[in-house]
Amino acid sequence: xxxxxxxxxxxxxxxxxxxxxxxxxxxxxxxxxxxxxxxxxxxxxxxxxxxxxxxxxxxxxxxxxxxxxxxxxxxxxxxxxxxxxxxxxxxxxxxxxxxxxxxxxxxxxxxxxxxxxxxxxxxxxxxxxxxxxxxxxxxxxxxxxxxxxxxxxxxxxxxxxxxxxxxxxxxxxxxxxxxxxxxxxxxxxxxxxxxxxxxxxxxxxxxxxxxxxxxxxxxxxxxxxxxxxxxxxxxxxxxxxxxxxxxxxxxxx
Length: 253
Description:
The protein contains 9 helices and 6 strands. By secondary structure, it is α+β, with helices and mostly antiparallel strands. The protein folds into 2 domains: about 50 residues, no CATH class; about 190 residues, Alpha-Beta Plaits. This is Diphosphomevalonate decarboxylase.
């Protein structure tokens, strides 16, 4: 629509941001820093590419759908209530965000997955802490969400380093970030502890992000070799799955 209306990049970003912050971040390829800005009219609230498409070619995103149901409280209404009532949010804006943004930018530029994962998960956890600090409290994660969080935390512990990062927005679905060499390990954990459908493993194997002829066979063969302390198996955790590269730019069709 922006191209049809002959809008420049900044104008398209500004219009997109009125509907969704996520959409304004998605208008550029690569890794994007959405800057808050300080101007009252929002004119300096803009997006900047910090690393181009292909900068971190081994990084993958795996979105795990735990529920397609509508939320009791929408993201916009929830954010408004948090802004009005959460003291933790005020502390976060002043004391936490600037330091974490700086560290996250450096982690992306240096392709440091350990730091990237640590900050990403901490950000997700604090978002939902703010939801609980809101009056009345907001609960977006369901029991499936919490099970996935526990599985990923236990998997990182068993490996001895961060091999996967989870993040939840204002909803129950889980987005995982992982590098190519951790895909097999993560799918094996999901198969054993979340009863991941083998058809969804096939979906990963045939995605544009991977070409993995015997992925299902390898995952099934490895499930007995993985043990996560303190985690029980749960059925019907994941309804669907999306798997992709990270950083591809949008295309005009």
